[in-house]
Design brief:
Helix content: under 10%
Low-confidence stretches: 1-28, 301-305, 332-349
Mean pLDDT: 77
Structural class: mainly beta
Strand content: over 45%
Radius of gyration: 35 Å
Number of strands: 32
Distance between the termini: 118 Å
Strand order of the largest sheet: 21-22-23-24-25
């Protein structure tokens, strides 16, 4: 019995280690394609290579080699094709070209590396003329930074950018004036990856400017003078806000609405910034440029205790917010918004924002209350930047007296810069 078991075990072991026969069809490689070509650039003959750097535009050869075969036992086949080409430029030899011939306003054209393209980084991409002032937005990295807000006065523009340098971030303010340059650059607030700041609004006040932002859980107000220089330190104006809007009433008075977690509040706005608080017991219409905010008080059963409905069409979108007993709800609702307020039946019950028209309906008044955003014929900047593939328009803002265009333009190191074109009425 033991001999039989041993013989069976040895036979099984031999079967495991003995080589198995493999068919010829399995051993052949599969997927062979002896005709698949592959093309690559190869150096041209010595006498036909490009001679970049001798200040003379010359001809040279560009050669490609195509190979095929080599698989499934087939021989490798190759063929080489060369074509003649001409240097675009070479040092001082630009072939008669210039910045203006490349479509720019002027400047100095140079030859790029490799003699295969022009270096246009010193060309003028902005066409300065009567009513158009050109400049460059300083300290902006077009790869990482963003344009947060642009405000216009009658003669200038204030641009707020968010700049990011590693783990350090900041909001920066730049004044684009009528001197042809950006007059000043001022840091507004800085933070690291562990914190953040949020820009709320920017408004002109005569020749001065006021900026509101949130940092460290508080709302701050910073004033700048006509030269773009901070007029003193930032002022703490209260707890963190969600929305701040500065606009003019129908009588021309400036007001600021601050909306946060607490009930919405409104303040006078003067050269010194926020002034005394103003009651919101009556309908209030504020407009700045094409932006409109309309505030409707909703009476409560108890005297002096009311809710607020705030309707807005800001920067091309519409929204509706409600403040009830210190609680806010609602928000941006797109181009069209309809909401049943439903707080106190018999008072203001239905509101709609559609096509820049704000409408509320109340049985108390007996007819709809409608406020339409009034538009002004804006200054339209035209033909201020060169029509060249290297020039990319970033943003255009307009008012009745001023227009500001921003465009991206490459630099020699490849980072790029932001060009400004301020257009004013004559």
């Amino acid at each position: 019995m033991r001999l039989f078991w041993l013989a069976s075990f040895v036979g099984s072991l031999v079967a495991l280690v003995a080589p198995r026969a493999v068919s010829v069809a399995q051993a052949q490689p599969r997927g062979c394609d002896p005709t698949s070509p592959m093309t690559s650039l190869v150096p041209p003959p010595d006498g036909e290579r490009i001679k970049c750097g001798d200040n003379v535009r010359g001809r040279y050869s560009i050669c490609t080699e195509t190979t095929s075969g080599g698989g499934c036992g087939t021989p490798v086949q190759s063929s080489r094709v060369c074509r003649r080409a001409m240097e675009v430029c070479d040092g001082r030899d630009l072939g008669g070209s210039s910045c203006t011939k490349q479509g720019f306003a002027g400047g100095t054209l140079a030859c790029g590396g490799g003699c295969e393209s022009f270096d246009i980084s010193s060309c003028d991409a902005c066409f300065a003329r009567s009513g158009v002032i050109c400049g460059v937005l300083p300290d902006v990295n077009v790869a990482t930074d963003t344009i947060e807000r642009i405000a216009l006065s009658d003669r200038a523009a204030l641009v707020v950018t968010a700049q990011h340098r590693g783990s350090t971030h900041g909001l920066h303010v730049a004044l684009v004036g009528t001197k042809g340059v950006v007059a000043a650059v001022q840091p507004l607030v800085s933070w690291t990856d562990k914190a953040a700041a949020t820009l709320l609004d920017v408004a002109p006040m005569g020749t001065d400017w006021v900026v509101w932002y949130v940092a460290n859980g508080r709302t701050w107000e910073q004033r700048y003078n006509a030269a773009g220089v901070a007029a003193g330190p930032a002022r703490d104006v209260g707890e963190e806000s969600k929305v701040v809007f500065a606009g003019q009433t129908t009588s021309g008075a400036w007001r600021v609405v601050i909306m946060g977690i607490a009930p919405a509040r409104m303040f006078e706005l003067g050269a010194q910034g926020l002034g005394k608080e103003v009651s919101l017991q009556a309908e209030t219409r504020l407009q700045r440029g094409d932006d409109l905010v309309f505030i409707v008080p909703i009476p409560d059963a108890k005297p002096g205790d009311s809710d607020l409905a705030v309707f807005a069409t800001l920067r091309g979108s519409s929204g509706l917010w409600l403040w009830s007993k210190g609680r806010s709800f609602g928000g941006g609702l797109g181009q069209q918004a309809t909401m049943d307020l439903g707080i106190n039946p018999g008072h203001y019950t239905v509101a709609q924002v559609k096509d820049d028209v704000v409408t509320t309906w109340t049985p108390v008044r007996g007819k709809p209350w409608t406020v339409k955003r009034s538009s002004v014929a804006p200054v339209t900047p035209k033909g201020v930047f060169a029509k060249h593939p290297s020039v990319t328009e970033l943003k255009v803002v307009r008012s009745a007296k001023v227009g500001l265009s921003l465009a991206r333009f490459p630099t020699r190191d490849g980072t790029g810069r932001v060009l400004t074109a301020l257009t004013t009425t004559r």
